[in-house]
Every structure is written in structure tokens, then in C-alpha cells.
Design a protein that fits this description.
287 residues; alpha+beta; 33% helix; six-stranded mixed β-sheet; 3 domains
């Protein structure tokens, strides 16, 4: 990871981003509030189904996901393209994808979290943040928020702010940090069953046949479980497919929805991500 990188305070961060990219650190523009931009017209206003603040990519129809951590790149042609010109002009800070650079950031959000890290984790490079510190280790892992009070892990499928060189020597990712991400998935009670108008014509709902509905839910669970990458997008697409087939006839129950949420959380999705994906899918279908 490149050490001496100029930090631009005037809102024009492209030069710093290009310098980082030359050191194989994937970068992206972030707003002053740390949120990423939607970098193509199709994704403006969350139209692609990502989380409302654009922190996680939805199932973009772009050549590749174009926002959040998935937009981070080392390609100078992309960074200097006309598509990103406005984003760089309005950027508040440069962001980067730690996992893409082979790094893990332990984000310590307050003084108590910093004190815990000093007692519990090996020393490594540290970077001051607005409220705490980033401890940066060499090695990538799964990103998890809230592993303990005031502590988030940012690596794969996540982004962090680039806040400067920091101090200290970067060390290898320790088992103590990896262990923080190993926990049983928390099963969240599913939302209330969907209530929607009866099918057009008032006919009997064919989905009330137990075998038909159970087969559909089982296939959805299998699709989520089989995901090897882009889990968030797979969960959203699966929720969208289930709601497309069963969402307008009132046949889904808490038990059915809970099975889908449990499968998603077993793949690392948080309860909040599950709720966001479900809500976005319902909104997309007008339910």
C-alpha cells in the first residue's frame, strides 16, 4: 500500500485517487457524508435495487456493478472517464476497497474501542478518523459490522475512507481479528405476512397448494445457499422472484419469509440487509 499520498482538501481528489490506483489500491469517490455515488443513470435514485444510501450494490444492469465497493477500480481510464467526472468534482473524500487491496481495516469508532484494541490486538498501522482510529492489517477477510461495541471490520465487499498515511508498521492479519467475524447467524423474526389484493378476477389462489408454495420457497433457499459471490445481489434477486410469484395473493406467511431470511443470514447477510432487500423488492413490484 502506497505510503506518501497527497490528500486533497479542496474537493478535487482525482489526483490522489490516481496515485493510490497506481499502487494497486482500488479507489472510488465518496460524498462528504461518506456515502458513494451512483455512477450511471440506471442507478440514480436507487433504481437498481441497492440499499437506499447506495452503500451496497444492487443487481445493476450495467456492464459491472457501478457503485459502492463494487465500483472501486485501479483502471485510470475508468477513474478519468466522463461518467465519473461529476462525482470527482463533488467528492468529499477518496474511498478505497480494502479487500481489493488485500487489506483489512478494523474501524474503531470511539475511545473505548481503541482501548480494547490496544489490549487485545497486535500493533499495526493506525490512521486517525473523525471519532476514533482505523487499524490496518495486511490480509483480506469477510467484512462484518458491529463485531463488538464500536468495532467494524472492513475488507471484502466494503469500502473505507482514505484518510492518509497513518503511523506504524503494517502487520499480517491476526487470528484475533479473524475470530471476531466467526459467530452464529442471528435469526431475525420475519416481517408480517404480506397483505395484497386478491388475484384479478377473484379466482382461487393457486399458490395455496402447499406443495407448490413449499417447492418455490425451497428453490429460493437453495439459490441463496449456492451463491459463491455477489451474495447481496443474489438475495435481492431471489426475494424479487419470490414476491413476483407469490406476493400479490397473500399466501406468504411469517414462516416462509423467515426461511428466506435465515438462508440469507447463513451466507453472511445481516438482518438489516435482509430487511432492506425485502423492502426494496416490494417497492420495485409496487407491493
Amino acid at each position: 500500500m502506497t505510503d506518501s499520498i497527497p490528500i486533497r482538501r479542496d474537493g478535487r481528489h482525482l489526483a490522489a485517487a490516481l496515485y493510490l490506483a497506481a499502487g494497486n489500491v482500488p479507489v472510488l469517490p465518496l460524498r462528504a457524508g461518506k456515502g458513494p455515488f451512483g455512477n450511471c443513470p440506471d442507478c440514480a435514485g436507487n433504481a437498481c435495487g441497492g440499499r437506499p444510501n447506495m452503500k451496497s450494490p444492487g443487481p445493476c444492469r450495467c456492464p459491472r456493478p457501478c457503485h459502492a465497493w463494487a465500483a472501486a477500480t485501479t483502471d485510470p481510464r475508468v477513474l478519468t472517464s466522463s461518467t465519473w467526472a461529476t462525482a470527482w468534482r463533488d467528492a468529499g473524500v477518496v474511498g478505497y476497497h480494502p479487500g481489493g487491496a488485500g487489506l483489512t481495516v478494523v474501524d474503531l469508532d470511539n475511545a473505548s474501542a481503541i482501548a480494547w484494541a490496544r489490549e487485545s490486538l497486535p500493533a499495526t498501522r493506525t490512521v486517525p478518523t473523525t471519532r476514533g482510529e482505523h487499524w490496518i492489517y495486511r490480509g483480506a477477510m469477510r467484512s462484518v459490522n458491529g463485531v463488538r461495541e464500536g468495532v467494524d471490520l472492513k475488507s471484502t465487499m466494503a469500502y473505507a475512507r482514505w484518510l492518509g498515511r497513518g503511523t506504524g508498521t503494517m502487520t499480517d492479519l491476526p487470528d484475533a481479528v479473524r475470530a471476531l467475524a466467526v459467530k452464529e447467524p442471528t435469526v431475525r423474526r420475519a416481517p408480517l405476512a404480506i397483505t395484497a389484493p386478491a388475484p384479478v378476477g377473484g379466482g382461487k389462489c393457486r399458490h395455496r397448494t402447499p406443495a407448490y408454495l413449499d417447492r418455490g420457497i425451497a428453490m429460493a433457499e437453495q439459490r441463496i445457499t449456492a451463491a459463491r459471490s455477489d451474495v447481496h445481489a443474489t438475495v435481492y434477486r431471489t426475494f424479487l422472484a419470490v414476491l413476483s410469484a407469490h406476493g400479490r395473493c397473500g399466501c406468504l406467511t411469517d414462516t416462509h419469509i423467515g426461511r428466506l431470511f435465515t438462508a440469507a443470514q447463513a451466507k453472511g447477510e445481516s438482518p438489516r440487509h435482509c430487511t432492506d432487500a425485502w423492502t426494496n423488492a416490494r417497492t420495485r413490484l409496487g407491493l
